[in-house]
Amino acid sequence: MEKFPNTKFDEEVLYNRIERAQKDMLKDFDLSKTMENLSKISEGAKPDMSKLLEDSQKRIVKMNAIKKMRQDYLKRPNHFDTVKLGEVYYSLLQSANFNLETGDDNLQDLIDGVLKYKKSTTSQIVNSEIAKILTRAKINAKDNKIVKDAVKYARAGMDDVEVMLKEKPALTMQKLDIPMRGNAKLVLAEVYLKDGNLEEAEKLLMEIQSTVSANSIEAGQISDISRSLNRDFADLYVEKKDFDKASEMQKATAVNFAQLLEMVAKAVPEMRIRFSTSNP
Fold first, then answer.
1. Pick from 91, 94, 95, 155: nearest CA to 128
2. Which of 70, 171, 182, 266 sits CB 3.0–4.6 Å from 225 for a disulfide?
3. Residue 246: DSSP 8-state
4. What are the tens digits of pLDDT across the range 109-145?
C-alpha cells in the first residue's frame, strides 16, 4: 500500500478490503440461530437479553467500521474506477437509511454521488432506488428536507425508464417495458402510501394492476410486481379502513406490515425476510 499510494492498485486493494469486511460481517451473523431465538421468543421463552445486546453491539461496531472504510474511500485524492465509486456512494446512502445522523448537506452529497457514478440497469433504476431509500428513511428523519424529496426522485425514475426504453427498443421487444414501468410506478405508489396520500396511491396501484392484467408476460418477469402489488394494496386498505375514526393516539402509534418489516430490518439489518400472501 505504501509503495503505491493513490494509485489504481491501491484503490483496488482498499475496495477489496471493504468487500471482505462486509462478507465477514454477514458470515458471522448466524441467521438460523437468530430465527430459532425469535421462534422461542414468540412461544413465550425469555430471551437472553445480555447476549442479544452483546451481539447487537458487536454488529454495530462492525457496521460502523465498514462505513468508516467507505467514507475513507471517498476521501481518496484520486478515483480510477467510477463503477466502484458509485457502489461505495450507494452503500453509504443505504446505510444512511438506518442511521440518518448526517445533515442535509451530507445526505445530498451521497445522493449526488450516486446519481453521478452509479448507472441504471433494467432491474435497478437509480432515481427509483434513491426514492425507495428516502421513503424507508422517513420514519427516522421526519424533519429532513431531502427525505421529503422522495416523490421527485420517484418521478425522475419513471422518466429514466422511458428514456432507457427509447434508447433500447430491444427491451420492448423482450417485453421488459411493462415490468420496468410497473416497478417504477410502484416506487411512486409506495412514496404516496408513506406520505399518507392514499387516493393517489390507490389510483396508481389500480393503474399498474390493470396494465399487468391486460398483458401477457412471462411469470418470472411479473411475479415481483404481483407480490409488490399485493403488499401495497394490503398496506393501502389497512391505512384506509376506519382510520379516520381512530383516536389521535391510535393514529400516532399505528404500525402497518411494511413498517413492522422496517423495524425488524433496522434491528437486524443482515436478516433476509420472506413472506407470502393469501391474495391471488
1. 155
2. 182
3. S
4. 999 999 999 999 988 999 999 999 888 776 555 566 7
Q: Which residues contact 211 (CB under 8 A, 6 or more apart)?
A: 178, 181, 182
User: What is the average pLDDT across 36-61?
Assistant: 71
State the angle between helix axes of 8-28 and 49-74 in degrees (0 to 180), rounded to the nearest 10. 170
pTM of the model: 0.72
* Burial zone of 17 (CB within 10 Å; 0-12 exposed, 13-18 middle, 19+ buried): middle
CA pair distance 25, 43, nearest whole angstrom:
29
Q: Which helix (H) or strand (E) holds 113?
A: helix 104-117
d(CA 35, CA 220): 28
Q: How many CB atoms are located within 10 Å of the residue 159 CB?
A: 12
Q: In which residue are the cell numbers 467500521 written?
A: 65
Q: Give the CA radius of gyration of the chain.
A: 21
Q: How far is CA 183 from CA 60, 88, 138, 253, in A?
A: 32, 24, 20, 30
> Do residues 73 and 16 lie in contact, with contact meaning Cβ atoms separated by under 8 Å?
no
Residues 6+ positions from 115 with CB-CB distance below 8 Å? 126, 127, 130
Q: What is the pLDDT of residues 2-33, one digit of tens each?
A: 555 678 888 999 999 999 999 888 776 665 66
- Under a CB-based contact definition with an 8 Å cutoff, are residues 152 and 134 in contact? no
Amino acid present at 260: L
The yes-or-no verdict on residue 258 having pLDDT over 90 is no
- Cell numbers standing for residue 168: 433500447
Q: What b/e string do you get for 86-107 counting C-beta neighbours within 10 Å, with b at 16 or more?
A: bbbbbbbbbbbbbebebeeeeb
